[in-house]
């Protein structure tokens, strides 16, 4: 149940973990510095201080704390996770040729693609330095595996784009790569660094995995559903011809005439006035938006169930509530 | 002394380390695979099998072997070093907007910039997985530090380009980043994995550092000096307005009229017919090419001296000879 007493779950998480997040922010500021190349902290600060929710480092801090960890390295791991996230944002914006992110100009627009590529590389390297400082080899394996899965998911998304034969299984693979891999690594390392028994570590992984998938499905759904409040423009994915879950579902149920429409607008890139409206009508006709919404809710329920297997605590319950918040935008 | 009996030093190194290099090639092929994204091995194979000299992995194998290492992990480390190198090549070609490398079309031209960025990220992540498998935390520190230094050097090069106030000290910093950091890490980890005493590890680092600097200075010199044999077009750096050592030295000795010339062609990007010839005349007039050559020779001598502090062996002497080979192109 969504407890509204003290604000939204991620805000309450941030309140509860404020001292740890201060330490994370200090470490990030320290490590984004560069003695020789001032362009690096310029670009990094622009992104890091853009006012994101810091959901990923909060997940790591919360997981470590609810596991009773009392060492110093959850701060390194949370900073690692945020650096990996920031590096992927920089590279994503180059790959997607994006001009805006979170309502501000992207770094590739303000500086150039070159800076975004190279500063991203620097942050990846910094993230590996940070995780190495923990001295925990299992944590290193988990996070370097996650980094590989993220890049693999991005390449898969690139080659699957504009391809109407993309299946729901491939979509799930892409989503695990681009979003869920870092969520699940973020929560799992919290349990590993606290040296918790394997079932708890697995539950933390399952929680992050399912939460990340729910998060991304909601994001993709809002691209056809959202209003002004979401800060997204309806139809961006349609215009970029991305094969997201709503479109995959509608295409699977399409008759011959509808298939010809999808082939024209997605594979042949021939989009005309009124095509987005027609696409939305087809998504509704086949119940693709509602089915997508149900899948997001099912993943959120799965995340909750995984977390419920851990001992009760205020943090645990907040992490459970976080799922309601993530899917609230489509509830 | 350059021993010509059995070919060039790097060829003799490759002969001597053929079984280990076979293992490296097998590991690289194994790890560049991707279950889900066939684009990844396509792009990687194109680069890895482009017929480079594999100098960096050979350095790691040679260092480990001359230190008497008899475990399995020098193969992982050599593969790590080659993956980091390949990833930086992919990203460099995007940043430099290159069309050709080693006489072939670049990956960003054959596929696209997106694939080059994302496959590069994948190879970075794979390199961190590989080094993590060694379980040696000092090796992880050295290689993640090297990755950060490489990216920092690339950013520094980007911001120093077209800037005539670039000093020789900044140039050296860039060269350490873009080239020497990976050479020195490649040799140093060979000693670390073999658990050699600190003075030997330091000598291996010093060797790689100086060899890498000599290598890059020679490369930059050949951009104004080389002929067809080098496979480089004379004047590429001039046209890209890169501040390399010959230009920095000539600019430092320029009179007012010459400074106006450099400002026009480098900072204002106003290059006309005959400007490259005039630039070459100025480089010769001030002895900038000869001075640059002397610096390359001095760094090569430094590398030899560092290696000479290690116990004599065939591999050690080959690594010493390698310096003659590197500077032979300008001798």
CATH superfamily of chain A: Farnesyl Diphosphate Synthase
What's the CATH architecture of chain A? Orthogonal Bundle
Give the biggest beta sheet of chain A.
2 strands, antiparallel
CATH class of chain A: Mainly Alpha
Summed up, the helix count of chain A is 16
N-to-C SSE series of chain A? HHHHHEEHHHHHHHHHHH
Distance between the termini of chain A: 13 Å
How many strand units of chain A?
2
Give me the side-by-side strand order of the main sheet of chain A.
Answer: 1-2
- Calculate Rg of chain A over CA atoms: 20 Å
Strand coverage percent of chain A:
under 5%
The total domain count of chain A is 1
Describe what you observe in this structure.
The structure is a homodimer. The first copy, chain A, is built from 16 helices and 2 strands. Chain A has helices at about 10-15, 20-30, 40-50, 55-65, 75-95, 105-110, 115-135, 135-160, 170-195, 200-225, 235-240, 245-250, 255-265, 275-285, 290-310, 315-330; strands at about 100, 105. Chain A has a two-stranded antiparallel ribbon. The longest helix of chain A is centred in the middle third of the chain and has 28 residues, at about 200-225. The radius of gyration of chain A is 20 Å and the shape is globular. The mean pLDDT of chain A is about 90. The interface of A and B includes residues 37, 95, 132, 145 and 156 of A.
């Amino acid at each position: 149940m969504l407890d509204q007493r003290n604000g939204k779950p991620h805000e309450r998480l941030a309140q509860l973990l404020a001292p740890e997040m201060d330490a994370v922010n200090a470490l990030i500021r320290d490590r984004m510095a560069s003695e020789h190349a001032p362009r690096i902290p310029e670009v990094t600060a622009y992104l890091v201080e853009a006012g994101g929710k810091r959901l990923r480092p909060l997940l790591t801090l919360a997981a470590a704390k609810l596991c009773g960890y009392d060492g110093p390295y959850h701060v390194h791991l949370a900073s690692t996770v945020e650096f990996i996230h920031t590096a992927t944002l920089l590279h994503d914006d180059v790959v997607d040729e994006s001009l805006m992110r979170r309502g501000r100009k992207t770094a590739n627009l303000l500086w150039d693609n070159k800076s975004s590529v190279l500063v991203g590389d620097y942050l990846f390297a910094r993230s590996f330095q940070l995780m190495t400082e923990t001295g925990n080899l299992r944590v290193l394996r988990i996070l370097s595996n996650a980094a590989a899965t993220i890049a693999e998911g991005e390449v898969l998304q690139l080659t699957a784009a504009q391809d109407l034969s993309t299946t729901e299984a491939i979509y799930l693979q892409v989503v695990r790569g681009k979003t869920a891999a870092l969520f699940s690594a973020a929560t799992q390392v919290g349990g590993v660094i606290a040296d918790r028994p394997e079932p708890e570590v697995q539950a933390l992984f399952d929680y992050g995995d399912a939460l990340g998938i729910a998060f991304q499905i909601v994001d993709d759904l809002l691209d056809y559903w959202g209003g002004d409040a979401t800060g997204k423009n309806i139809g961006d994915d349609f215009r970029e011809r991305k094969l997201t879950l709503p479109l995959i579902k509608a295409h699977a149920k399409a008759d011959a005439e509808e298939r010809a429409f999808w082939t024209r607008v997605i594979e042949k890139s021939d989009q005309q006035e009124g095509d987005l409206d027609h696409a939305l009508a087809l998504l509704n006709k086949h119940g693709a938006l509602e089915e997508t919404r149900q899948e997001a809710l099912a993943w959120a329920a799965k995340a909750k169930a995984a977390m419920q297997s851990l001992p009760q605590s205020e943090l645990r319950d907040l992490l459970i509530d976080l799922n309601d918040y993530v899917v609230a935008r489509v509830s």
